[in-house]
Amino acid sequence: MASSSSSSSYSNPPCAACKFLRRKCLSGCIFAPYFPPEEPTKFANVHKIFGASNVSKLLNEILPQQREDAVNSLAYEAEARLKDPVYGCVGAISVLQRQVLQLQKELDATNADLMRYTNNEMGAYNPRRVGYGSGVGSYNPNPGYYSYGENPGHGNN
Amino acid sequence: MASSSSSSSYSNPPCAACKFLRRKCLSGCIFAPYFPPEEPTKFANVHKIFGASNVSKLLNEILPQQREDAVNSLAYEAEARLKDPVYGCVGAISVLQRQVLQLQKELDATNADLMRYTNNEMGAYNPRRVGYGSGVGSYNPNPGYYSYGENPGHGNN
Question: Out of A72, A93, A129, whose CB is closest to B89?
Fold first, then answer.
């Protein structure tokens, strides 16, 4: 049964996007499944950073089953950009890249300690996890695609 | 001295943004310092993902000395979104978060090996770097702000 609203042709409350854009939320609205009316800020943020038209285009270019993930990642990026207009979520990437480098350094040093210690003091002892130099414990903290410049500069000034 | 161009009131070649948008690149153009004509793709990407109007608004809201960093981070985000329309650079954040967790686990295990070994076998030996459990070597791989959901799902299907 339709709601008691007498204003137009839709029977459900408009999604957050249509409410924000002050338009009718018709059946098949591309935004409706991902921007429920209970979460108005989600759409407002995404619209402010990317623009409703760009988001609509993007959603139409990907598979329906990927759209929820896409909207959530856009919402995450938008929120990060609103919190940090200069770096957005790229700031998080810089911080995480530094964390990975620092942890890798720490792990290499600990493995070196263990290796040196076992070689010098005990001779034959070979702990399972020691992979100093290569192999186990070898991570690539800069796998190319995620590299954000050589000197991101974030937080260095 | 002005160039030999006779077409309009600007003396320099238009920036990549104005060229793309087919408008005059006037003195004081907000885009010109960050979108040189030699890098047309940089603007095209940013425009496709964020829209020129949103980028212009954002640049006007931040300090001039922060604008270059802002444009570079926007260009990075835009390129990541074009490469991966579903996750964009949030995919990189998920990967890096998993790397941090994995490295932390590896470091804890190596420290535990070292600690157990030195306690059981050698008694008094206390290597400088061992900080198992807390203190040195203790990282927080999920510092809240960078947390992308509890189950990012990226790459898990």
Answer: A93
